[in-house]
Amino acid sequence: FRLKSRSTTGMADYNAEGGISSAGSTHDSSMSADVNSAAAASGATTPSSGASAANGSTAQNSRTAVTQQENAAELSFGVDFADIQILSNAQVAVYLQVSARSADNRDEELHDVYRKTQKYVDRFNTMNNKEKNFQELVDELDNLQDALTTFRKDTDDGEELDLNTYEVAALMNLVATDTLVEEAVSLIPSLSRFPETAIDDILDMIRSTMIRIVS
Predict the structure, then answer these.
(1) What is the largest CA-CA distance in the chain?
(2) Rg of the chain, C-alpha, whole Å
(3) What is the DSSP letter of 44?
(4) How many CB atoms lie within 10 A of CB 38?
(5) How far apart are CA 34 and CA 11, in angstroms?
(6) Which pLDDT tens digit goes with each residue over 189-202?
(7) Strands across the sheet containing 37-38
(8) Cβ neighbours, 10 Å, residue 9
(9) Coil, helix or strand for 162?
(10) Cα–Cα distance for residue pair 81/10, rounded to 1 Å
(11) CA–CA separation, 30 vs 23, rounded Å?
(12) How much is the pTM?
């Protein structure tokens, strides 16, 4: 089983059989992350086109095509990210911490990209409590992700609105216990399609989880 996941802080490839690996080094036997990049927590990352060209115009066309495909405000991220699960900073941080401890127990050295990514998500992880064990944190984060993913709101026109996987991760990354509706929409413009009462309900779910984690 292999799950390619994209965090709003970067991309990770999780392999349930081989452990977290980076540039050929394997660490944890229960999960795997091949961390390709780290990016800003408040926006979508732009994947590499994977193509090289002999002249600048071809390279420019490739970059333009990617830019046209990706627009976080319109929840458009291109075909490369059509069928992936996006993880929050907190989720990536927990997985990498556990794998780092496992690698240390086996006297294995972590790849530099792995260390940089771990440092990044730890820095911006707002849902962390060192007094809680790994499973408690995983359960809280997974339950919140599930609750946000299954959230539905019917409009007066009969349309059913739900949260995009990018929005779920961005909310988990950016919302604080005192975040207001206006601030949430400013940080994640695509939320503007929801009525304010629905956004407030979403924020309440996140606040409750954050309070349980840090208390």
Answers:
(1) 60
(2) 18
(3) -
(4) 21
(5) 8
(6) 999 999 999 999 99
(7) 2-7, 10-15, 37-38
(8) 28
(9) strand
(10) 12
(11) 18
(12) 0.66
